[in-house]
Amino acid sequence: MNNVRGLVAASVISIQNSCFIYPACQKCFSRLILDSRRFNCLKCGCTGEAKDASYRYRLSLKIADTSDLFDITVFGSCLDPFFGITADNLQRCIQDFNQLSGDTNTDESPGVLVQAVETCFIGKRFIFGV
């Protein structure tokens, strides 16, 4: 694998999915397997109560510079300033919203949030570390 790192100035073309946060292991940042009462990390074996699971941002984007298209994923707290809230707190807001609206699909963000993220990112130019 090539260990060369660099910066790419590119514009966001699209948001690749509507799931902007995921339950993350605090040791290895892998996605946790959640059931109604427990969580389990398949990578490092960490376990705990589902109510204590932490969340992390994951924003999958299609971007373009002057000559190429790229699929990239931006992880973690660097997205806090864009959302104005931590991933843990956004998850709580989504849960509250879903309870009020009766929506049981916890794998997708509410449509209004998806629209806000698209408005914030699509067509804007950013510098990405790759």
From TrEMBL:
GO terms for cellular component: cytoplasm; nucleus. Residues 8-95 form the Replication factor A C-terminal domain. Keywords: DNA-binding, Metal-binding, Zinc, Zinc-finger. InterPro entries: DDIAS, Euk_RPA1_DBD_C, NA-bd_OB-fold, Rep_factor-A_C. Pfam families: Rep_fac-A_C (PF08646). GO terms for biological process: negative regulation of intrinsic apoptotic signaling pathway in response to DNA damage. The keyword DNA-binding applies. One of its GO terms (molecular function) is zinc ion binding. The keyword DNA-binding applies. Belongs to the replication factor A protein 1 family. PANTHER family: DNA DAMAGE-INDUCED APOPTOSIS SUPPRESSOR PROTEIN (PTHR35537:SF1), DNA DAMAGE-INDUCIBLE APOPTOSIS SUPPRESSOR PROTEIN DDIAS (PTHR35537). This is DDIAS protein. It comes from Bucco capensis (collared puffbird). The gene is Ddias.
